[in-house]
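>> received
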Amino acid sequence: MSGAAEDNLELIRRGYAAWNRGDIEGVAAILDEDVEWRGHPRLPEPGPYFGREAVRGWLDDLRSAWQEIEVHLLALSDCDDAVVALVHITGRGRGSGLDVASGIDAHVWRVRSGRVVEMTWMQGDSVARRLGVPPAKVQSTVEETPETLTLLAEAGRE
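>> returned
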């Protein structure tokens, strides 16, 4: 793996670590000023958002809805011009106090010059369809055949 690819993977790891600490500014720090962001299609107001400040506002709103929320990184891979992360999200609703968990979603990150220029959040059912497997088989498919993440990188360009 090239030095640039490893740098991109580390950048995305830092972003997830910042999010899990509740550090929105730490997440914003990895974003390009002109970032394009497409949030989870089933969340309120998923975007797209253009620019670091717009994304920061969306992330603040998302985080404020949760008493607790954490992204569990299941797989992370450099795929040509993208970094693809397979994630599982858990949280507790601020108002309801209910524990919730996502399926396995994919985040497709495009990085240039050490900053995220684009992020697309692919919901779990869509990820499973793209890989041609049932939702329960997404993680094992990726573990057995890591190059399948390239399909998600390509889908994130659409």
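>> The chain has one domain: 3-155.
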